[in-house]
Amino acid sequence: MVSTLSHIREIERVGMGAVSPRDTPVIQSWLRCLNDYKLDPTIAQEAYIVPEFKLREHREQAEELIRIGRSGLEALFTQIAGQNYVLLLSDGRGVTVDFMGDPTFDNQLRKAGLYLGSEWSENRAGTCAVGACIVSGEPVIIHQDDHFDTSHIGLTCTAAPVYDTLGDLTAVLDISQLRSPTAKASQQLALHLVASTARRIELANLMTRTRNDWVLRLARSPEFLDVDPDAAIALDGSGRITGLTHGGFGALARSMNMRGLATRDFLGQPISEIFDIDIDDLPRFMRGRPNGERLLRARNGLVLFASAIAPAVNIRAPKVPEPRLPRALRDLSNGDAAMERLQIRAAKLAARDIPILIQGETGSGKEYLARAIHDSCGGNGNFVAVNCAAIPEHLIESELFGYASGAFTGASQKGKRGLIEEASGGTLFLDEIGDMPLGLQSRLLRVLSENEIQAIGALKSKPVRLRVLSASHRDLTDLVKDGRFRQDLYYRLNAATVSLPALREREDLGWLIDQMLRRIEKENGASYRIDTAARAALLAHDWPGNLRELSNVLRVAAALSEDGVLDLACLPDHLFAGDATVASGLDDDLRQALRDCGDNVSALARKLGVNRSTIHRRLNRLN
Question: What is the pLDDT of residues 407-439, one digit of tens each?
Fold first, then answer.
């Protein structure tokens, strides 16, 4: 084992750009520790065990996962018995929620952090297997002096991620030793065992959560198809994917030339787009059929063995996913395939108390979606929306955190509750989170980590319990790379991501136009109708401003309408300014229609079913 001093010197050289023979995941983690978390390799930190009340919270949130994974953990621990390994199951925040080890060494294990309640997040413990696995999403070995902190360089730790059925990292399985052979290669068997067990836990979780769906197990060879498949996919009654095992399916997807696709990209997709089958073909893959008849061909030609398990209640008629959606989410779209996949994903996430990052272009409806998620999980507490880009930088801290009486010149004598405290017990929605000042990001991270808030000028902290949703139209990973957004906060907020399609990509634009017009009717106490030509113009527009632009356009048109009819003359000029081709085409159509009527405006008005004044107004716009 290397000396403490030489270990520190090596980390410092790597931080200065020196080449190192260590594995890439280790180097990347060291650099995160130095550059993102500002950890000092010369300062050794003892292993951190969370307080008992916090451990209870973490275990309660992971209760179902612990129950589902317990048999897999026990089987793994039996395999490694006698090798002085300790088994840890950590949640997505790096806190150990289940533990198996030799009780004879309890004191040593607790001191080393190989114990129930230990926190192995990378920003707290430095380079470690659990923390590196959470960040990378891949299995990893952190062996002896691969560890960043000198207090851990005697350990060897091997970890693999456990993903939920939506493709989000939900836990990390780790096996560690206090002492081990010097060679890192000695842990290759440990890596294989922990990755295989993680895959089995994912399968057990999928089977538990999809009892009313078909499950299709897949393997490259038939021997372990029914007991330890490479991957599994859950399908609803219409043949759309509702969940899958991440690790195994990712490998199969790569072999099917589907690189670059995240697990979540497959949710909501028809199985027929990936394999040469549909929902009615599944019974022929059920157990009892000869293996030779259970061959499945992927669209790219790859042949796999398949085993189908029917739902607990086998309803042959296709199931429509919409009735299972909470109404608040169901009302966001009407028949758009991308939105349907998003709604299914958001409904499942809404039932879990995890942070969600909403991405999408400006004006695409991120706050609508955030409010729908809040309403879908019972709507308990307040929904507090904060636009981080709209509040002046010198005010945003006091707006978010509040202030105590007399905290600063001009402060109210009564003090002021901040928006975070207002959201306690409910949902805090941080819109345009990428525009939050760096200094304030640190304070927000502490709130999310410790579940407490301290107002400006206050001497004591207050506990807060809230759900955090955030949104950005910018790529936060780019901001992290540029040093404008804290990486640790990014991972704290980005437990799961949902991406809203742009308005121009949506198949239900006509329905959205009608829904928005109904809302304007209620606000104005009036009735409106869109004529054929105006509707064609609205459907043809590119909508760079998305829902916000559509709302403004319809409000202007309603204000300019005569007798409640929204026609071409009512549409704002800017609607055509950026789309000369569409505008020109509509104008040419109008000119040709007038010529066809012998330049008789009255005849054209009768033909189109509009007033003569409408034709005259449009012709005046054309000079």
Answer: 666 556 677 888 999 988 899 999 999 998 888
Cβ neighbours, 10 Å, residue 213:
24
284-289: long-range pairs with CB below 8 Å, 24+ = 285/216, 286/310, 287/226
Pairing of the two strands 169-177 and 156-163:
antiparallel
Residue 316 has pLDDT above 70, yes or no: no
Burial status of residue 246 (CB atoms within 10 A of its CB: 0-12, 13-18, 19 or more): buried
Q: By CB neighbour count within 10 A (0-12 exposed, 13-18 middle, 19+ buried), where does 609 fall?
A: exposed
pTM listed for this prediction: 0.52
* Residues 265 and 247 sit within 8 Å (Cβ to Cβ): no
Cross-sheet strand order for the sheet of 496-499: 383-387, 427-431, 467-472, 356-359, 496-499
Which residue type is seen at 264?
A: R
Chain centre to alpha carbon of residue 114: 30
Look up residue 580 and give its two tokens: 């000369």
Task: Give the lowest-confidence range in 198-202, 288-292, 483-487, 507-511.
Answer: 288-292
Residues in contact with 127: Cβ distance below 8 Å, sequence separation at least 6, in sequence order: 26, 29, 30, 33, 142, 146, 147, 148, 149
Q: What single-letter DSSP state applies at residue 415?
A: -
> In whole angstroms, what is the distance from residue 225 CA to residue 231 CA?
9
Taking alpha carbons only, the member of 349, 344, 345 closest to residue 324 is 344
Q: How far is CA 184 from CA 1, 155, 180, 553, in A?
A: 12, 11, 9, 64
What DSSP string describes 143-173? EGGGSSSGGGTT-EEEEEEEE-TTS-EEEEE
Q: DSSP letters of 305-366?
A: EEEEE--SS---SPPPSGGGS-HHHHTT-SS-HHHHHHHHHHHHHHTS---EEEE--TTSSH
